Amino acid sequence: MNDVGGVGSVGDVLGLPRADLAACVQCGLCLPHCPTYRVTGQEGRSPRGRLEAMRDVDWRGAPIDASFVAAMDSCVGCLGCETACPSAVPFGRLMEGTRAALAADRSLGYQPRWRRMGMRALAHPGLVRAGALAVAVVQRLGLGPTLRRRNLPRLPVGRPVLRSTGDDVVLVTGCVMDAVQRDVHTAAIRVLTATGAGVAVVPSAGCCGALAMHAGLQDLAAAQAARMVRRLPPGVPVLVDSAGCGAALKDVGHLLGTPAATDVAARVRDVSEYLAEHVDRLPFPAPGPVPVVAVQDPCHLRHAQRAHLPVRTVLAPYATVVELDDDGLCCGAGGAFAALHPREAAAIRERKLAAIQRSGAPEVVSANPGCALHLEAAGIRVRHPVQVIDDRIAADAARDTRRGS
Hints:
Elements: H1 18-22, H2 35-40, H3 47-60, H4 66-73, H5 80-84, H6 91-104, H7 113-121, H8 125-148, E1 169-172, H9 176-180, H10 182-194, E2 199-201, H11 210-214, H12 218-231, E3 238-240, H13 243-250, H14 252-256, H15 259-267, E4 268-270, H16 271-277, E5 292-296, H17 299-304, H18 309-315, E6 320-323, H19 337-340, H20 342-359, E7 363-366, H21 369-376, E8 382-383, H22 385-404
Parallel strand pairs: 1-2, 1-3, 3-4, 5-6, 5-7, 7-8
Helix pairs in contact: 10-22, 16-18
């Protein structure tokens, strides 16, 4: 039987660092920040409960049974527990390692073949676009309510064309977001160009590996991330308008362990981070009514990147920003969580919807496609922060043109 004082620095089954597992003192400060614990009230669906289950397997020889797999699979991966933890327990790393161990043992049935195939398809933008178009067509044939039960809103049929405007920065377009929210990319390009920056778009760079990593498919995540690293130009800021992708790319040096990946990770910025640093270069809005928006912080912007405050900085001149009163609690999207665990995701979302309703704001801004799609499926109007800025700049330009004509 293994125990914390045993020989070696990692466990024998899950391969988790003993010091990291031992760092949790079971204080429970993470509990109010865990979305699955909040909706179930079950200790086994809390961060400390999951950590204790990991200890049982790695230290005490407990079996990896269906209950253990379900507990690990049901984690949204929001990392709210890390922000709340006074002991700095690296829960995200521990969950990644646990899921990787589960996925590596095919006999457990974790991440079945159809899921693995879906994750591999993300490396092929044409397949992702075709899949998104198929869903959009099905919705327009009257099957939308069926898809909404999987937390999917109405997807677009057409996509605007992306054009590079220079080479001062590069914008990562990704996979799913490029297929269903390309209008966010076009808005980001226009707003970045308004600062005087030339924006390069790298076609067909594919997936960054975030979803595969979230699922424990580390080899696939590394292959997808390495492909993207190879396609990104050197020496310029790498800007991302998807919080989940940004978090993954900021961590790509750790994932791949190569000088090229470390270099890319050091250059990654969320688009709001970059804009906040150059906000004085943006056109100052003309006097007049401004939209009132509630800010929903994507977990991977707030907890993984710790880069949610720049959103407020860049929005301030263009909108009245209303804060939600739920202390950044997860909305339930969680990468593929909303599609794979629709009931739990919907229950988590209800708390977010209540906070939005209490705010009184008519619309929400969110810097992550998964969060936006998840909230839109519940009937909420959601825009990306760059879309709010882009709309205001365009409205001012149109007004100036009318006055000059």
